[in-house]
Design brief:
The protein contains 8 helices and 14 strands. The chain has about 350 residues and is of the alpha+beta class. This is 2-oxoglutarate-dependent ethylene/succinate-forming enzyme.
């Protein structure tokens, strides 16, 4: 599939990444080579052969179901805070920064966000650095194993994501650690999503057409389906669930970093199933202080980079502030208080 014309695909490919485990350099390079073709031409693929057990994936899904089944007043005790951690009620975001559609209706979902854990006594918290603070957790008396389940999964996903960063680095002719150096203190998000059954209405989506902001996304789906990826012809290609796999896709910052060698592909979610849908995307992004500028390996000799350098934290906050309703309300309240 790596020889196809960019954007011309009718299915999402599957990549066995077991070669990234075990220390065989030839196996790693073989995975990286195939990966590059998929990221250049499609921007989406399924990952299999990883070392995260299906039981751990399912444990997070069950924890998610238990949380969203709580009474609304319990969920609202964890309402999303200024550090982007906590519960986002139904229809709490509208993707106004979408470059692929004019979006005016909010996403038909509710969610809870867990980011990289930052202790309340961390100097970054005292300095009010963006997105730095502790996570919010449900009452352990209500969901006694919830936090342990989520933290174990985040650790596993971080390990897998670092392996994929290394493979991407190798695929560009760089050392395995060259990109990973920008992830010393990674910006991570685990978002647990609940999509209720969706009514048919023009312009209404579980998640409206968009591209992801960050570096890579690793998504575990349930068996309901609904994820679709847009190809060059404008067709929406289904990405149906595959057991014990993750859907991986390129985010905008990786496309920018690679000078558009890699493609950040539009996708959407429409829950036509008549069933409730649960998904758990894990977003693995650079440190907030990382300077993102086109990699020399991705800029032709004598050519200029397509994008100006940008601090990842500045870039990320601009998008979050525009797309999440609660951020706009916070900004208005802070402005009025001045």
């Amino acid at each position: 599939m790596s020889t196809i014309t960019r954007g011309e695909f009718s299915e999402i490919p599957v990549l066995d990444v077991s070669g990234l485990y075990g220390g065989d350099e030839d196996a790693v390079r073989a995975v990286a080579s195939t990966l590059r073709g998929y990221l250049e031409n499609i921007g989406f693929l399924y990952i299999v052969g990883h070392e995260i057990s299906q039981s751990d994936i399912e444990a997070v899904r069950e924890a998610s179901k238990q949380f969203f089944a709580l009474p609304e007043e319990e969920k609202l005790k964890l309402r999303i805070d200024r550090n982007f951690r906590g519960y986002l009620p139904f229809a709490g975001s509208t993707i106004v920064t979408s470059s692929v559609a004019t979006v005016s209706k909010p996403n038909q979902s509710e969610s809870i966000f867990f980011m990289h854990e930052v202790d309340a006594n961390d100097p970054r918290v005292a300095a009010e650095k963006p997105l730095q603070g502790p996570n919010q957790w449900p009452d352990a008396a209500l969901l006694p194993e919830f936090r342990e389940t989520i933290e174990r999964y985040v650790a596993q996903m971080t390990t897998l994501a670092r392996k994929m960063v290394g493979a991407i680095s190798i695929s560009l002719g760089l050392s395995p650690d060259e990109l990973n150096a920008h992830f010393d203190d990674p910006t991570t998000f685990l978002r647990l999503l609940h999509y209720p059954t969706q009514k048919a209405e023009e312009g209404l989506f579980g998640s409206a057409p968009h591209t992801d902001y960050g570096f890579i996304t690793l998504l575990a789906q349930d068996d309901v389906g609904g994820l679709e990826v847009k190809n060059k012809a404008g067709d929406w290609v289904p990405a149906p669930p595959i057991a014990n796999s993750f859907v991986m896709n390129v985010g905008d910052i990786l496309a920018r970093w690679s000078n558009d060698v890699f493609v950040s592909t539009p996708h959407r979610v429409i829950n036509r199933s008549g069933r409730e849908r649960y998904s758990q995307p894990f977003f693995f992004d650079p440190s907030m202080e990382a300077l993102i500028e086109a990699l020399p390996a991705c800029v032709a000799e004598g050519a200029a980079a397509k994008y100006e350098p940008v601090l990842y934290g500045d870039y990320l906050m601009e998008r979050i502030d525009k797309n999440y309703h609660y951020r706009k309300k916070q900004a208005a309240q802070e402005s009025a208080a001045r």
